[in-house]
Amino acid sequence: MSMSVRGWALLVALLVPVAPRVAAAAAAEQRLTLDEAIGLALRKSEGIVIEREALGAAAAAARAARGAYDPLLELEGAADRSQPPVNSSFSGAPAGQLAPETKSLGADASIRQLLPTGGALTLRGSGARATSEGVFTPLSPAYSTEAGVELRQPLLRDRAIDGARLELRVTKAGHRGAAASLRRTLNETIAAAERAYWALAAARLGVSVREEAVSLAEEQLELTRSRVQSGSAPRTELAEPQAEIERRRGELLAATETVARAENALKLLILGDGDERSWLASIVPADSVAAEAAPVEVAESVERGLSARAELELGQAVVDRRRAEAAFASDGVWPRLDAVLSYDRFGLAGARNAAGPAAVPAGLDGNWATSFQSLGRGDFDAARVGVVLGLPILNRAARGNAEAARHLERQAEADLARVRNTIRAEVLDAAAALQTAGQRIEAARAGREAAEVQLSAERDRYGSGLSTNFLVLTRQNDLSRARLDEISALTDYRTAVTEMARATGSLIEERGIHLGGSSQ
């Protein structure tokens, strides 16, 4: 998946509906839905900020790489004066001087365009005005003009790929990799938020079970106290329910600590450094852990994971980069052989040099306009067709670089295969966990219902004098464990659903988070 930079920049603000901030410490509790927890986690995540900035940098690098194909305009202007000594009897210098003095004022312009074939097209033009005291120089001032075109095309090295095309492919792969890395971070952030949310929900339900267990033990103590007062039971019978109450209160305190730890783990994901008051608020999950198990399509889930996981796009981006680098390095083994085609036209005009010949050559008498007319007619031109061969001896550096690049390419391909197998294993593990958790829900529900019936029957027998405190308290403990097992089965199923969505790479879409973007 590739995205526009602007789409990613607005991502955190648009991912989910606006979630209310956790209430200030003045509120004892703050109810929080799962969607709100996800929204807060996405807004707070430093990892998403880092990956988003990395994506922006990758997009900028891709744009910079395309800049290699921007036309290059070069302008040059110069004024020259020269009077070099001439060791000749025909120097053309005025009487009494060893060399004529020449002055010129000129300008050059060229536009160079890199071509997708690795070649370069250059358009050039120049104009100059020159004066000379030389007696052999017929024109002073002289107006010279030139216009030409040159095409240089590699035939071996740089024909299939060159530095510019390598940079384009590398930055394009880098942009895809950055987008995949951000998507992976989003996926992991959502999964972490959901796991923490359901862990807190399970911990709070566990506290409720422990509180009920304490209440049941207190009720049993009251029943026992009534029997003791009526004389139907000895006073020593009070010891067992009293001891059980204290044991269960210890379990309640441990469960309360578990809630605090689970709550802090969720806060760590959803609250930032500026939320000091919110850190002191108590979070209550508003979504129920109740769930109905659904069938799992294992083969379909594996196929989805192999097509949607961001890790595969990230690994493929690395492979594409290594392939481009290997192609460029292998291309460097070839000798350089360039074809060069050029064509130039020239114009010349001027006035008779007072120190030179008596007459101006026909057609050259004039100024800039005359020179440009001559240029346009093509009175003077030059054409060139040639080849340039560069043959490095031994070329050990290029051969070594090509071999190293091939090793890195095969390494990236092997790593991609490893990622694919890892994803298969993760999806299969998630499917097994989801199936098991779904089956546990029915078993735990049936166990809890049976424990309720057994406790009710045992309490009836106790009321009839046919049971003991030990048996009643044991049935109460059985019911507590059964209820905890049911809570565990439900929350494990919720967590397994999250893990399956994460393993298949569909968590973002399944949670209704829409990512808009465009290709680079």
Short summary:
The protein has 520 residues and is α+β, with helices and mostly antiparallel strands. It has 13 helices and 8 strands.
Q: Please provide the count of β strands.
A: 8
CA-based gyration radius: 43 Å
Determine the N-to-C terminus distance: 10 Å
Q: Tell me, briefly, the overall form.
A: rod-shaped
The overall average pLDDT, rounded, is: 89
Strand order of the largest sheet: 2-3-4-5-7-8
How would you describe the oligomerization state of the chains in this entry? Answer: single chain
| Percentage of β-strand residues | 15-25%
- CATH superfamily membership of the largest domain, which one? Outer membrane efflux proteins (OEP)
Order of helices and strands: HHEHHEEEEHHHEHHEHEHHH
The count of helical stretches stands at: 13
User: In terms of structural class, how would the helical and strand content be classed?
Assistant: alpha+beta
Helix content: 55-70%
Low-confidence stretches: 1-27
Give the domain tally. Answer: 2
